[in-house]
Structures are given as C-alpha cells and as structure tokens.
Amino acid sequence: MRAILVAVAFVAAACAHDAAEDPIRAATSPEVDDRVAVDMTLTRTVDGAWFVDIETGKPVAALMFARSRGDYRRDTWRPLGAVAVTRRGVRDALEAESPFTRAAFEVTPFSGILQKDYTPFIPYSDGGWSIYPGQFEVYAFDDAAEIDAIPDDLGGVSLPGTRTRYRFVDAQGASFLAFGERTADEIAFEEKDAFVYLGDATPIETEHLAAIADPSLPAWLRESIAAYLPRLFEFYAGSFAYAPPGRPMVLIAPLDTDRNGISLKGGTLKGQIAMQLGGSALTDPDRRDDAERHVRGFLAHEAAHLWNAEGFQPSNTHAWIHEGGAEALAFDATARLDPADGAAFARDRYQSALDACQEALAGGSLATATRRGDFRAHYDCGAIVMLAAATASTDGDVAALWNRLAERARNTEALSPALFMLTLADLGADAGAAAAIDAFLHETHADPAAAARFLFDATGVAYAVNGDGGVELAVDGG
Ligand SMILES: [Zn+2]
Description:
By secondary structure, the chain is of the alpha+beta class. Among the domains are: 36-199, Sandwich (Immunoglobulin-like); 315-478, no CATH class. Helices cover 31% and strands 25% of the residues. A hairpin with a 2-residue loop joins strand 11 (175-178) and strand 12 (181-184). The two termini are 30 Å apart.
C-alpha cells in the first residue's frame, strides 16, 4: 500500500505506506468477467467546465464510491438528470427514484485535503491538473440500502463485482501524461491508483522518467529538480536488474501554505511519485541548501519505492524491510550522485538514522514498533540493518541486496524477515552476521548502543566509540 498525506516541515519525509487502504476487489474469474461494467467519462470543455458521464452495463439501483472521505461530492457534483449524489452511512452514492443505466453531472473540481485519502483534483499554477481516478471508482448495487452498512474501511468487505473503466477527455487540446506516456485530447484506462496529469507544461523526459514540476516553483528549484531527477532515475535503473512496469513518473504540484520552512506532501502510487511542495524556505536564499537537500532526499526515498515496493507485498509489521531499504537506497543514491561530498553525506544520514534508531530501541524491540505506534523506527533501524546486511554480504551494496531479495520475493509472497535472512545467506553473509542481524531485529535491547556495537562487530561496519560512549560510524563505514 502506498501513500501520503501528511504535510511535513523540514524533518522526516513521512511516506506512510500504511496510510491509505486499498479497497478489496470482488473476486472474479479470469475467464468469465461477470462484473457490472461502469464507464466513467470525465470531460473538460473549451470553457473549462467539467462534466462526468456514467454508463452502466445493466440497470443499477445505486453506485457507491470506493472512496468517500470528506463528503465533498454532494457540494461539487451537480446532477444533470434524475440521478443525484446521496450520503448513505459513511459513504457517497449515486441514486435515482428507479434503476438507471446513465447518470450525468457537472463537477466543480474539489481540491481540498481529505484525511488519509488522495485529493481528487490537484491544481497547477498554469491551469494544469493532477486528477486521481480512484475518486471516481464505484461499485454497482441492486439494493441501495445495502450501502448503509458498508464501513469506511473496505478491508475484508465483500462488494458487488464492478469494473470501472475511465475515459478522460479534454476539449481544450491539452495533453494527458499518464503511466509514463503522453497523449493528446483523451485517454482511456482502468488503473485507478495513479494520478493522471492534464496540462500544457513540458515534461522532463528521459528513457527512465517523465516528470512535471510546477512553473510557479522558484527557478532555482525547478533547475535543481530538472538536473537531479534524470540522474536519480538513471542511477536506479542502472542499479536494479528489473524495471518497474511502465516509465516512472514524477508529478510535482504546488502546495499553497503559509507554513514556515518547507512543506512536502506526497508519496508513491502505481509507477509514480506524486507530491506537492511549498513553504517559505523555497524563497529564502539562506535556506536554499537545506530545502534542496530535503527535496532531493524525499525524491530519492520515494523513487526507491518504485523499485522496492512496487510489485511486492510490503509488510506493515516488518516495514523496516521496504522503508529501511528505501532509506538506505536513497542515502547511497544521493552519495553517488554527489561525488563532491557524497561519502560524508551518506555517513551523516546513516549516523542520524543510527542515533534515532537507538532512541527508538530504548522503547522496545523493532519487531514491536508498529504495534507501539513507532512507525518511524522502521525507517531508522531499517536503514541501519540494510547497512549492516550490505556490509556483511559479498557485494557490499544495498542495491545488490535488493536485486536478490526481489528475485526471491517474486517467487514467493510477501517481503518477510525470513526471506531477508535467506537473501543474506545467498549473498555470502556468514552465520554470525546473520544471527546478529536477527537479534538486532527481534530482541529487546536494554542497551541499544551495545546492540549497535554487537551488530557492527558481527557484520564488519566500521565505527568508533566517542568519549560519551556513543557509537559513531566511520566516514567510509559501508
Ligand atoms: Zn517510504
């Protein structure tokens, strides 16, 4: 699961992979598709008005929206016929006096923040839009009253088989950018879990990337992003033995905020990073370096997820695997892409992770972190585990570790600690190193500094102990 949603100031780019749930789809047979087909067409007219036209393959009593947080549709979807937006329990639905096969609405793009969900329409400063198809996904019901009992969280709920197909049309002749490809005038698709860009901006395009950065961002930042993103994605593409499906996309929209510092909101979706960026630091020359480092760090972490979380089943309980993996991959990528002080940068990032990890371990073991509500521990301790594991393996490289782990994960199921340990053995880590990593992950550590020293001694990570007994990584420590 991927997603977003928390605006963060300077610290910690939380990319909360646990934040948004994905509705469970009704089971379907691969041979016979007996789902009700719903064709959802969103049109922008020459005048800039928006219309939704819906056609169903058979008469339905109601269509229930898969995502209903914020109750925004009753105010922003104006009925053009007999079918209107209703609220049933905690869910938005479309209903009429009698069963229907067509419905039409004029829609005002809703751009407000929805708690733990994606904004339906994110505006760019030049008239462009990021549109989230999942906000248009529906389920077809023969009895509207059934919707009353459907909870907010669709996990485990059996829903009527429905196949929503999307068609976005633009009468203004702007281009769509979706799933790594650019198309003029209209696109049709079924993937709901990725923003579709509509607008006139010229993308940053390479073989491995298609990106949009809002023109209202300061020129220095746009130049920095345009210089960095192609190198970042080329680095990852070259580091991994497999590629994410489709050309990766990055969509950077403005974030209207009066927050001091930098505000970043975003995360990964299917094959893309979607983010919004704003805050006073972006226009303060004294804070430019910090802001640039923060944005690059965020992009490096999220881009890593397009390789290390896409196509695998990330585990919430063992989130240190994909979150720690993305942290370590990002530290290494940033280090390699900045040869001037890359090694020092990586060392500083690992050191910060080590310090934070020791603090986290004082509250309990990493294995219990999710339960204890300390999700951040997965990032920090996970990065340290990756450093130790890569150092202990013969390749000495986090990307090599991930290539092997991904190969194993593809043939089995979820990313798990057991799979990680098998991967370590594949890569030539000795039994002592493996046992130390296992202990670091699962045991409760009365003395977290001693636990770190034990881990590093067993895996070969270079460090020193300072006058206060603190563990300090060596500059070339891994
Ligand atoms: Zn992440």
